[in-house]
Description:
about 35% helix; single chain; alpha/beta; three-stranded parallel beta sheet; 6 helices
Amino acid sequence: PKKAGLFKSGGALYLFVESPICPGPRDPDGPINIAKRQGENDRWLNLGQYDNPLNPKAHQEITGPQIEAQLGGKVDFFSAGLGTTGTFTGTAQYLKSKIPSLITVGAVRVPNNAVPGVRTINQLAEIDFKWDKLIDKGYIFKISTKESYYNSWLMIRKGLLVGLVLDFLWPH
């Protein structure tokens, strides 16, 4: 294992595994299942982001309330990239419970574009969280690598430290 990215500041070590951008969670030789097997070792921890119900629950209990509080409940729509779908599912559940008129929109990756963590619409068939029940009127948009980086910069310039650009801000 070697240190990299944002984890470096916390002293975390992780193993790099060669794989597609968004490997299938059901691929026995993919990094998701390698992580599950490593997590069985006492010295390793696998948080199970693809199947752990605490993933969306954390966003329902923390991210959603933070967004509502910071925006004073004045939220017309919520959008997030669909990867594990935990962020989208938990945050959308909370916000919809407080703001029934909220419109929710999911972002998927254009096939053959590198947008780490965001899946193509076909890859989402492997995800078990009920993200599709929270998308309003089928509002799903496809995003490319270029659009992802551009929009990351726009958000960072507004003070929101999110997105792909962060990979370039911290040394690996």
